[in-house]
Design brief:
With 233 residues, the chain is an alpha/beta fold. The chain is 55% helix and 12% strand.
Amino acid sequence: MNYQTYIKFSKSVAAGLMMLAVTACGESVENTGQTIDHEAVKAQEAEALAEAAKLAAAAGGEGTWGDIVYGNPDATVEVIEYASFTCPACANFAANIFPKIKENYIDNGKIKFVYRNLVRDQYDMAASAVARCKTPDIAKRLTKVFFERQRDWAGAEDKIAGLAAVARRAGGMSRIQVDRCIANSDMQQHLVKMTQGAATRYNASATPTIIVNGSKLNVASWENIEAAIDGKL
């Protein structure tokens, strides 16, 4: 089934996706000389968390809204990843860098690791909405598998059918459930705002973008991330 036959983006979502078309995959984050207003960011983060809590309450607890959190939620070091499901560099990060972060810092409770979506295109929007359609544990499982199987579903002629096939095997979701998740306009709006937040708070325009205790790294390499984390512990 063609993607456009069953999902109707609202005007605001469509406008958001048009704006996000400039988002780059796999490029170094340039140092533009701009400084991050950390106090303003804290206020914006608090507002975003409050909005996510309201959306979760309105949905009756169904779906995963806001941050997807790994590790110790009370850790003094917070690492944020903004990523896109259709970005090969993000799939490489998930396969080769995140496991090192997990082994060295997440599993032992040294850091709080936050995953956020930075949506680049309509298929990324679809995958993001499906990944967040159920519980946080399923969201983590689908996030992992969507990156692992990125070439299969994102490279398929019918990308939505490929995505649905992966979601069925990894998340136990029927095609009808997948279509409903994709068509959830509240989740679409939420993902657009999350993506816009990356730009307004951290000047993020590339995926993956990594933030360590509020400071954006220029290059999302293991060496840079390790040095940034160790410098905060």
